[in-house]
Amino acid sequence: MARSSTESRTRTTVSVVVLFGLCSFFYLLGVWQRSGFGRGDSIAAVVNEQTKCVVLPNLNFETHHSASDLPNDTGSTEVKTFEPCDAQYTDYTPCEEQKRAMTFPRDNMIYRERHCPPEKEKLYCLVPAPKGYAAPFHWPKSRDYVHYANIPHKSLTVEKAIQNWVHYEGKVFRFPGGGTQFPQGADKYIDHLASVIPIANGKVRTALDTGCGVASLGAYLLKRNVLTMSFAPRDNHEAQVQFALERGVPAYIGVLGSMKLSFPSRVFDMAHCSRCLIPWSGNDGMYMMEVDRVLRPGGYWVLSGPPIGWKIHYKGWQRTKDDLQNEQRRIEQFAELLCWNKISEKDGIAIWRKRINDKSCPMKQENLKVGKCELAYDNDVWYKKMEVCVTSLPEVKTMTEVAGGQLEPFPQRLNAVPPRITHGSVPGFSVQSYQDDNRLWQKRINAYKKINKLLDTGRYRNIMDMNAGLGSFAAALESTKLWVMNVVPTIADTSTLGVIYERGLIGMYHDWCEGFSTYPRTYDLIHANAVFSLYENKCKFEDILLEMDRILRPEGAVIIRDKVDVLVKVEKIANAMRWQTRLTDHEGGPHVPEKILFAVKQYWVVESKSS
């Protein structure tokens, strides 16, 4: 019995060893296959074939401008094909639609703010390109020339003829670089600014141009490595923002009205107004307080045009000396209240510099109406009313310390760890996770380039990242050939837009259940990382995809990363919108549940009923 017991224990031990060995073997085999190096999973291979997870040999990213060369197959019978909208919607901007705007009050430009259509008024059709539409000129030629067929509106060439905004010359518009306050050209105007503001050394990287016209200031600041966010309303100055984007210059439809700007606090190195018609001296200084909110500590505010230079120009402005003098006095008083230091006033241009911290200049409280802003959190700005209050700066220990942290000059700040990260101001992110995110997106961009070899060649000038995170997608692509509008969704768990600006990049908040504040056909490439998972059960995928189609140029490209079950739904809708699509594996291998959908919007114009 003793020997039998010993043999039993031996067999049990052997069984355990064998079982452990088999478990270890199959675990390691699974890890090997999931890494993307395993090639033995025939079932996975069949699934990948069914979902078209292959390299894209036939998806063409070049421009052709010939609808007759494109296939007529919409690809899916499960989703009804979307028809073209009527020709009247060629320049449709859903949240800035003129007829709806006129039903709102004129006070504080409320009627020029965002007013999106209710569900029953949304368009479920494809916004057409105008007849004769052609791909924009490549940068930098696009800065100076725009195809007339793309924006067939001549009114600005008449209204602003003597101010050198834009000239109509046959089949193109030419932009000589002039403006209302710089008819001799933006370059000379910027030279004047650079004599006071340290533009040349990379300390001024992000700028805000309020009431930008056709964005010639932003266009010419790009030569100085300054990235400008320009905005203007959709008003009687027809298509001014549309011209800016067609030129390849960052811009959006917007106004300084009753709502806060869609940016976090402390993000712009410089703000600018050149005869922008904003009543800075009115509303108890509310508009200057909003500029103060978005300016970095030590940032610059430039004001040119009325009332600056009133002693010389009052007759041309058809206003009395007293009126202009009182307006400037009020502006000076608000600037003093905000602790801005006036550093220059010459040739009709005044420049102030914002305080670097609250300790260096205690807020003046003579005006009892003005107190400190009480925000639930500093980024709580989407559809929030502007207020007459002053935004506090982060605390400092000394009078010489820059509130919120000192930034590196550009381009060093692009990949330096942003102060908001080092100070722990962004929940869930550390120095290590920030650096990991940079490496991850560099790897992903390299994988994108293997499929779309035109990604960083200049083929795509205006790029949109719909869910930008820390801005690492844009940082990996950074080039003078392109710029990226980094959008942080308003429903994102964490606001990272402040980090994006601290990297020397630009962007804004937005809710993708609504239309974006831009004209149709203004972006060459759209990138959407986990956007549809984020908005699942929030709004319809059709709404988001139709908006992407509206703002994407004909033959523009789309890259969508998401879970495979989400992308299968997205692809069916995309095929019903005349997009050519291909679903591919994650760069980590076929067993990663996240996939990538590449798409190209087909070329068709308003008279093409099928393509």
UniProtKB/TrEMBL annotation:
Q: Where is the signal peptide?
A: none
Q: How does it sit in the membrane?
A: Single-pass type II membrane protein; Single-pass membrane protein
Which InterPro entries does the entry mention? Put_SAM_MeTrfase, SAM-dependent_MTases_sf
- Stated EC number for the protein is 2.1.1.-
Would the keyword Methyltransferase turn up in this protein's UniProt record?
yes
Q: Which residues cross the membrane?
A: 12-32
Q: Which GO terms describe its molecular function?
A: methyltransferase activity
Location of this chain's protein in the cell: Endomembrane system; Golgi apparatus membrane; Membrane
Query: Pfam families this protein is in?
Result: Methyltransf_29 (PF03141)
Keywords noted in UniProt: Glycoprotein, Golgi apparatus, Membrane, Methyltransferase, Signal-anchor, Transferase, Transmembrane, Transmembrane helix
State any GO BP term from the record: methylation
| Chief place where the protein resides | membrane
Q: Which family does it belong to?
A: Belongs to the methyltransferase superfamily.
Name of the protein: Methyltransferase
Provenance organism: Oryza meridionalis
